[in-house]
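User: Predict 5-formyltetrahydrofolate cyclo-ligase's structure from this.
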Amino acid sequence: MTLGQLREEVWNTLARYDLALHPTPPHGHHPNFLGAKKAAGLLLRTPEFQRARLILAGMDAVLKPLREEALKAGKALILPHPDRPGEFVLLKDLDPRKLKRVREAYRYGVKVDLKEQPIDLVLIGAVAVDEEGGWVGKGYGFPQAWLAVEAPFATLAHALMVYPKLPVEPERRVDLIATPARLIRP
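Assistant:
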């Protein structure tokens, strides 16, 4: 199996069983899925999220509840610039209701050098993960392959996106995987 075949398998399964939420179809995305808010609720209660003061987060729809809760809790967020790969925007003291579209984050934030930021947690979307912390993304965009941050990486996944062991080489490792029913700490 190739990375592309694995992605298609996951996207097709989520679509076939009507488990994908906006944006649909899930193909080409880190899928938003039925139960994602419940999975986010599990991740929000972890010590890693509770202690984090500065969070680097992807712009995927599935991560929206986590981004909103971080801002509500007074945490600072760093988001990738929507149109400039490799650029990042810092959001602090922002009412999440102002951020109607995550693509507008650059209007409310300031450009920052990622290397100079004391990031406590990284939130990323996923296409597939495994029980050992292996992660496969959508194949482009955030998080870039070069992204090296000394902080725990966390993601959300539907149970159908979780494999005992990925049938391909993982693109990276994650430290926390929240599904609607459980928290996986590889």
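The mean pLDDT is 94.
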